[in-house]
């Protein structure tokens, strides 16, 4: 397993995402993932599966300090009066006294960036989280985040071979911030792609594995594929016995011209400012 080191945090480059997994399924899949060697687990308040994830981690015969656990504060909890109580509830559900990374899940137009970042830094100060970061933040929003003096280690965003995230990725690299890729296989849209398929055939790998390899082969990029099937866990983590050539990376890079975005809720920020 490849790790990335960012501002002192050592994080497995490949993790388990739990978006849309019901609580019981999240518990089962998290337990299976830990058995397969995953040590990076991602959940969120709005997923409503923190309890299942927490139970799986608590029941695993693995030192808690060896698991990098992330959760996210939902946009409805970003006001000062709601923020810390919501984090405390998350910790109770997760059956732990701290997470390794706490993220702002989505910005909220009704809550100033400075207000929620102050609360995020307060959560870190209280020991509720070791590290802090954001998710779904554009470069314009990141300018406001960094203006607060917060030391964020990542921006978790949609990133896969079919979307153009050049501007955001360049910004993050310049600022020394990692990119965590959610929906890293474009919710299945990479399947059947001729370029990915042809490259995969050379290595005996699937389009999914090629896509994930393309991500984790990049500097300071992590990927958190989600699956509800235990048998897929092994495939998703089986990325570290091959390496894409420079020409193959270049060919995959060309796919971003499609610029397909699969996650775009009504409350999303203005992506044009990415």
UniProtKB/TrEMBL annotation:
InterPro entries: AKR (IPR020471), Aldo/ket_reductase_CS (IPR018170), NAD(P)_OxRdtase_dom_sf (IPR036812), NADP_OxRdtase_dom (IPR023210). SUPFAM superfamilies: NAD(P)-linked oxidoreductase. Keywords: NADP, Oxidoreductase. Gene3D superfamilies: NADP-dependent oxidoreductase domain (3.20.20.100). Residues 14-255 form the NADP-dependent oxidoreductase domain. It comes from the Bacteria. Belongs to the aldo/keto reductase family. This is Aldo/keto reductase. It comes from Pontibacter ruber.
């Amino acid at each position: 397993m490849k790790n990335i080191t960012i501002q002192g945090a050592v994080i497995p480059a490949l993790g388990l995402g739990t978006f849309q997994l019901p609580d019981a399924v999240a518990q089962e899949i998290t337990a299976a993932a830990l058995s397969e060697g995953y040590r990076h687990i991602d959940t969120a308040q709005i997923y409503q599966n923190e309890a299942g994830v927490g139970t799986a981690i608590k029941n695993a015969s693995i030192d808690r300090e060896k698991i990098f656990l992330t959760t996210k504060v939902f946009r409805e909890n970003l006001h000062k009066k709601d923020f810390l109580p919501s984090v405390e509830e998350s910790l109770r559900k997760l059956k732990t006294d701290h997470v390794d990374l706490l993220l702002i899940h989505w910005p909220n137009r009704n809550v100033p960036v400075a207000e929620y970042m102050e609360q995020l830094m307060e959560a870190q100060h209280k020991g509720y989280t070791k590290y802090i970061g954001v998710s779904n933040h554009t470069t314009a929003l990141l300018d406001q985040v960094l203006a607060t003096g917060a030391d964020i280690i990542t921006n978790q965003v949609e990133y896969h071979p079919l979307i153009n995230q050049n501007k955001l990725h360049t910004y993050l690299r310049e600022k020394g911030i990692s990119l965590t890729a959610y929906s890293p296989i474009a919710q299945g849209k990479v399947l059947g792609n001729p370029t990915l398929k042809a490259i995969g055939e050379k290595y005996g790998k699937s389009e999914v594995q090629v896509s994930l390899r393309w991500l984790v082969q990049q500097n300071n990029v992590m990927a958190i594929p989600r699956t509800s099937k235990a048998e897929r866990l092994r495939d998703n983590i089986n990325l570290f016995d091959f390496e894409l050539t420079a020409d193959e990376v270049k060919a995959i890079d060309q796919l971003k011209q499609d610029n397909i975005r699969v996650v775009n809720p009504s409350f999303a920020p203005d992506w044009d400012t990415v």
